[in-house]
Design goal:
The protein is mostly helical. The chain is built from three helices and no strands.
């Protein structure tokens, strides 16, 4: 898989996870906090979005042959 394909795949994953997160808009903060299933699955999808975003950035850096950052800052 080329870097360009990797980037497109990661962007697709970010979109997929963001779409899944839309479901959680209907819950109030109290409902999320009090329901372990809701809060756990919400936390997992947030984690997946962040990780896919970081992976996308790293793939773009490699594709453009830029210097890899020392920190995630």
């Amino acid at each position: 898989m080329s870097n360009k394909d990797t980037i497109e795949n990661k962007i697709s994953l970010v979109r997929k996870y963001l779409a899944r997160l839309e479901v959680y808009k209907k819950y109030s903060p109290e409902e999320i906090e009090n329901d372990q299933f809701i809060s756990g699955s919400l936390e997992r999808y947030l984690y997946l979005v962040v990780q896919a975003t970081i992976d996308t950035a790293e793939a773009m850096i490699a594709y453009r042959k830029l210097r890899k950052p020392v920190t995630l800052r």
